From TrEMBL:
Family matches, as CDD domains: GluRS_core
Motif 'KMSKS' region: chain residues: 246-250
Protein name, per record: Glutamate--tRNA ligase
Domain Aminoacyl-tRNA synthetase class I anticodon-binding: 327-467
All residue ranges annotated as the Glutamyl/glutaminyl-tRNA synthetase class Ib catalytic domain in the record: 8-314
Native organism: Thiomonas arsenitoxydans (strain DSM 22701 / CIP 110005 / 3As)
Cellular compartments annotated: Cytoplasm
Length: 469
């Protein structure tokens, strides 16, 4: 297990530019779990500097998704757009130390430079035209042009870090050009803001997607220029969809909240997501408490994980089966209310207890419960096939025994069933199937004695008399 000599502080820093899917929320789950495992702090930061694409609606979706999954944060949410004065203050420090410089190269000039480099089969990059160097004569400053500000990237040596997923990562500085850290209007750029935030928020560990790997050397240079110790990094491999493509909005990913609306349980989603890139031996099903006890950075996977909705449904079915009946009833009741079934008799918790191992989602469970609350007529051909003269005589005797029962219980009903079967020389399906059809209208239900016990004497007798006269 990874040891920590200091208080762990992690963060989730989403951009509110659309709905948040399972691949995104995994980048919240792991740093949340790591902070909780070590008794540290988990910070929520909204990186909303892309003002054209960011929206308050997307922020609310992020907050609702985290709340549904129980990913509570200790500080935040902090919004980058509200921290602009702080970014400008730090940018001024870098100007004074000579670590950034104004660049007046226009977009058209940059495009032309890029085309030349591509034609020469070179890596497209800024060529340092406006970078001040001893003895270098800079071009004449064009009139009326507001410059961008670029960071003076070291031109020799390497930038390296130990990544908890990728191992040692090393990049030669000569492969990097000078990063734009502020736009012409003075607005700081993403990589610069991230570093200032991580310093101010005292982030010790950054656990994020590997689409940020290319940003890390840039950010490490800025940490160094500001004399700050960088956090430790773990870059998570991509989550793939079922077709092997990157899980994304364009490739069919669904919003996290859609899984809530489709009847998945938050603990099931957390359990499934935890296994999409991390493992604890062969454990497939584990509680949230176990996950937090076990989670570390040493067992993060290095290969992309593939999302499998069938597996998620299987995990969800397990959690439904092991959720207390009263809790299940509280989750199913709004679905029945929506379906126009406002008063549930028999007791919904008892019904859920009987049916909980027959559904993979809450709507499936709600649909299963309808056999108790919304009777349907049996298929005439099926009833004729299963009833017959012998079956009808046995069912009539069974009805008589039910009517005479003093104790309406599953055990008493089961005893009556066995008595009639023995009397008529029948096997269980020969009586249970026609009774099931007459009472529920369905060919498949839980054990017929359990169903009849829950439905109650009056309902059962009334429905059987309808067909047996």
């Amino acid at each position: 297990m990874t040891t920590q000599p200091h208080r762990v502080r992690t963060r989730f820093a989403p951009s509110p530019t659309g709905f948040i899917h399972l691949g995104n929320i995994r980048s919240a789950l792991y740093p949340w779990a790591y902070a909780r495992h070590h008794g540290g702090d988990f910070i929520l930061r909204i990186e909303d500097t892309d003002t054209e694409r960011s929206s308050e609606e997307a922020v609310q979706v992020i907050l609702q998704a985290m709340d549904w999954l129980g990913l509570d944060y200790d500080e935040g949410p902090f919004y980058q757009m509200q921290r602009m004065p702080r970014y400008r203050e730090v940018l001024d420090q870098l100007r004074q130390s000579g670590m950034v410089y104004p660049c007046y190269m226009s977009t058209a000039e940059l495009d032309a430079l890029r085309e030349q480099q591509l034609a020469a089969k070179q890596k497209p990059r800024y060529d340092g035209t406006w970078r001040p160097e001893p003895g270098k004569v800079l071009p004449t400053i064009p009139e009326g042009v507001q410059p961008v500000w670029r960071f003076k990237t070291p031109t020799t040596g390497v930038v390296a870090w130990h990544d908890f997923v990728k191992g040692r990562v090393e990049i030669r500085n000569e492969e990097l050009d000078d990063l734009v850290v502020a736009r012409p209007d003075g607005t700081p750029t993403y990589n610069f803001c991230v570093v200032v935030d991580d310093i101010d928020m005292q982030i010790t560990d950054v656990i994020r997607g590997d689409d940020h790997v290319n940003n890390t050397p840039r950010q490490l240079h800025i940490f160094q220029a500001l004399g700050a110790k960088p956090p430790r990094y773990a870059h998570l491999p991509t989550v793939l969809n079922e077709q092997g493509e990157k899980l994304s909005k364009r490739n069919g990913a669904k919003s996290v909240l859609q899984y809530r609306d489709e009847g998945y349980l938050p603990d099931a989603v957390v359990n499934y997501l935890a296994r999409l890139g991390w493992s604890h031996g062969d454990a497939e099903i584990f509680s949230r408490a176990q996950f937090l006890e076990w989670f570390d950075l040493d067992h993060l996977g290095s290969s992309p994980a593939q999302f499998d909705e069938a597996k998620l449904r299987w995990v969800n079915a397990h959690y439904i089966k092991h959720t207390p009946a009263e809790e299940l009833a509280a989750l199913v009741r709004p679905l029945l209310d929506k379906d126009g079934i406002a008063h549930q008799t028999p007791d919904l918790a008892a019904v859920c207890a009987l049916l909980h191992d027959r559904a993979q989602t809450l709507p499936e469970l709600a649909q299963q419960t309808l056999l108790f609350y919304r009777p349907t007529a049996p298929d005439a051909a099926a009833l004729e096939q299963h009833l017959g003269a012998q079956g009808k005589a046995a069912a009539a005797d069974f009805l008589a025994q039910l009517t005479a029962l003093h104790d309406w219980s599953r055990e008493a009903i089961s005893a009556a069933l066995k008595s009639v079967l023995k009397q008529h020389g029948l096997k269980m399906p020969q009586l249970a199937m026609p009774v099931r059809l007459m009472v529920t209208g369905r060919e498949q239900t839980p054990a017929v004695d359990a169903v009849l016990a829950l439905l109650g004497r009056d309902t059962v007798v009334q429905r059987l008399e309808k067909y047996l006269g």
